[in-house]
Amino acid sequence: MAVALTACSGRGVTSYPELVLATGPPGAVFREIGGALATELHGAMPQTKVTVLGTGASTENLRLLDEGRAHLGISSLDAAAADPDGVAAIGRLYDSYLHLVVRADSEITDFDDLTGKRVSFGATGSGTEYTMLRLTALTGLDVDDMRMDQAASARALAKRDIDAMFSLTGIPTPAITDLLRHQALRCLPLDRQAADLAEAYPGSYFPATIPATAYPGLPPCPTLSIPNVLLARTDIPDTVARTITETVFTTADAMAATRPEAAQINVRTGIATSPIPLHPGAVGWFRDQKA
Predict the structure, then answer these.
(1) pTM for the complete prediction?
(2) How far apart (Å, rounded) are the C-alpha atoms in residues 173 and 164?
(3) Residues 212 and 256 in one domain
């Protein structure tokens, strides 16, 4: 689903015919952050048609960028680093956390109990799917894995159509927050799996903890985090990339009013996109902030 924001006039601003921003699926932070960013870009570039494209998330966004069907896309760093051709980073945004969620009355108490169970690996083309395929290869996890977006996974878990769901997302994620309003849940630890991924893929995965403040009634949960980056096609003009970069990092507080994850967006960590190079327009803007 695509949503377009348009305006017909503007003076003293960067002009570009259209920007298509590939985001994520229903119930995902990518979708929410993308919508907030599109609103800010519309204000900064009123002569540009800004279109928000709902997608499966990271892997699909990379494909859309490669095909020229999107100009901008949000991706987890692990997926982007595996296929960086033709894209450059506007900047690092916020970190996603890998959630393993079950119903509170489930017999599943840890990762190893998933064997033979019905488990959602996220939407096809998502960062969740990408990371879970890596984790499955590392650990030999043998489950009946299904592909559902976060909202659909939450509904299926509530109806007992699946036994567990993985979700790689910012915190708090809308799908889990909404489910908790009528269904008691548990978040299971993934500290051993975090260590496995960090050792196998240095620089993409980091041990982390989902804090108790993320979800009402759920205690802290050890897991892994993955940085998310805003990517642009390398053929976007430097002036346009510079305006996009400025918009992202100067309106983060405004976006954080509706999306708490945006509070993580800052100039200090924004340049930390390795191994994805920054777009030259982004480099210019970041350099000026140090002047």
Answers:
(1) 0.87
(2) 16
(3) no
